[in-house]
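Methods — Computational structure assignment.
A single polypeptide chain was analysed. Its primary sequence is given first, followed by the predicted tertiary structure written as structure tokens.
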Amino acid sequence: MYRHQRIAVVVPAYNEETQIARVIDTMPDFVDLVVIVNDRSRDRTAEVVRAHARFASGGVHLIDHAVNQGVGGAIASGYKHARDHDFDVAVVMAGDGQMDPDDLPAILDPVIDDQADYTKGNRLVTGEAFRKIPKIRFFGNSVLSLFTKIASGYWHVADSQTGYTAINRRALQSIDWDAMYKRYGQPNDLLVRLNVANMRVVDVPIEPVYNVGEKSGIKIRKVIFTIGSLLVRLFFWRLKEKYVIRNFHPLVFFYAFGFFGLLMSVAFFVRLVVLWVSQGSVPEITFIAWLFTFSIGFNSLFFAMWFDYEANKHLNPPLTHRDVRRPALPRE
């Protein structure tokens, strides 16, 4: 236990036979159960787990997927196990050893202190991030983090793609894990669902860990477009669920005016270009119509995002405890 709370660590694993034993070996003693979800690995991941001493002692539970479900599906299986067995906090750590166990107390403390329902590591705020994280992944993560702010309503949350997280029992019981996105967009999908459920989320600064033998299966260009389209769908789903169905908010009108205004401005801009090319001049009414619709659209979107920011500010409480790296505590 950690501070009298039962802790489960969920470890999604796919082809991690070279890394998974290290993950188990370095797990702090205060972790009550390590739930390893073998997502239909094609290597000896499951055999390595079963051969480990901590598995024999009951400190490790192995879930074998009959069909590969993706990292999101593996995390969902682990979350459901933690929820159904009444753990107080469920943590997610990767099966490739990229998450430093020394950061675990800092991830747990805001949840246990009831500052947050969900905490997530943030690798982008440290001075080492740009140097340690591969440049294309740093850029892709930054872009997705920006759009995740807009889609999720958590405007102070960054590093959206990090998987080092902790979630309390209340949030575990509030989310439909079977409906969660099952691939690499899982962290983005979960943030949107947490926002709709009015759960508090805070970032915890952590150190990025790379070059420990991990092998990334992420194709950056494909992931950015896949998650980008997912974020668009999640954005409109959140507006419908949170501001129309559950509790109406006039910001939906500003978003509607904004999108309509920008769409009309695009149409007027195309007309402006066509007339300029074909006639050598642009009618004043066309230019004024383009300028007017663009101004209305831009300002409406700006105000809509501002209202959204204000409506969700209480779900992004400031982190008052910033002792990031602490020695592992003994089991209580």
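Note: The first helix runs from residue 20 to 25.
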